[in-house]
Amino acid sequence: MLEKNRVQQLDIPSRKGYDAIFNSNFLDDIPAALSQWGSSRVLLVASKALAANSSHISALQSALGDALADTKLGVGSHSPYADVRDIAQRIQRHRADCVISVGSCSYSDACKISCLLAANFDPAASFDEADMEALVDRERGIADRRADGTALRRRACRLVTVPTSLSASEWNALSSATNAQGKKQHFGGWDDGGQPDLILLDPELAATSPERLWLSSGVRCVDHCVELMCNPRSGEVGYEGVGGHAERGLRCMIRGLTEYKEAKGVGERDEDGQGMEESERRRRRELLLEGISECQYGSREALTGLLIWRVPMGPSHAIGHQLGAVANVMHGITSCIMLAPVLRWQAANLSNPHYKDTQAKILDIFNETLSWQETSAADAVERFVKSLGLPTTLRDVGVVSDEEVRRIADKTMTDVWGGGKRQMEFEDVMEVLNSVRG
User: Fold this and answer.
1) 209-254: pLDDT as tens digits
2) Which keywords label this protein (predicted)?
3) CA 181 – CA 163 distance, rounded (Å)
């Protein structure tokens, strides 16, 4: 039995009163939170697949009882504006005092942005996707204030997120959604209260996640760790904690994903354990839940450098955001494809010794944790992704045309992680993309 562990989301003043519960039981912890807050008008936004393939969502609906005002099942990949607007209008229509998100990062991002929009548009006047887009600062690729420079109002309702993937957006006050032109835009600020009031990490619920989604979103966390370590700012005075958190997160993710993959025993026996002795089934189930819990702890470590020290992600994230938006490739898969080639480009093109030293450290972590003898960080990342049975080329995800590749590169140049002082220019991004055409 995994021990429940309640912690403050981040060890900074702005997160006081914002907690996370590791090894949660969401069916117990949600009603307890609602009772504590006095919430009585709840909007549930939940995974359609989870609702169709398990009893978890119906059980939660029953547990909520009369407090449940409305349920929305399903949010599109990368949080389309249409879904974000729909959730915001449901919040307004039902005067929801709490939103509960159960699903992947597309759900948590959509709900965070929807809560923000519901507080900033008049419920008596309909707002459309053009109004959402008008909030985005074109230079910075982010919506955190109005055209006159005034800050957006904080959300008025509570928010609980129950993640079923490892992309870890629930830890961030900043969120992203995709407009009708296929451009991923970012909403919110660092300390504007956009983070959930409560994050529930429930390994039993997460175990229902499709294997590909869990593993690929875990690679997304690996991407968080690696890009934070590679950022030269993480080596500066005053930023010493960034590397420590990222390194711990990377070790957690490598161990946790490996345990998860072993517990699944893909190709060895039926997933339901038919033909397996009871003791072996129990062992595999315990290993699975332990691996999931390890990954969930790692997902928090993976983002700490960004959220506390404001050290940004890098080119893998910038390119990956737009690969996802342009070609409808899910979050984690974008990291499976882009992280290794970005590391290769950095090793070949950037002279700052920080990159060489950090890549050596990343390589050591992979080799030590997995008893490998790889010779480059990029090769270790690529081997790890392949060991999980995940794609590593653009062709693997159906991106084959020159026009699509150029669109991805073009949109990368105004991505929030690609703007400002960036490592790559357009031709550099094209070089990286072309190196993984497949």
Assistant:
1) 999 999 999 999 999 999 999 999 999 999 999 999 999 999 999 9
2) Oxidoreductase
3) 27
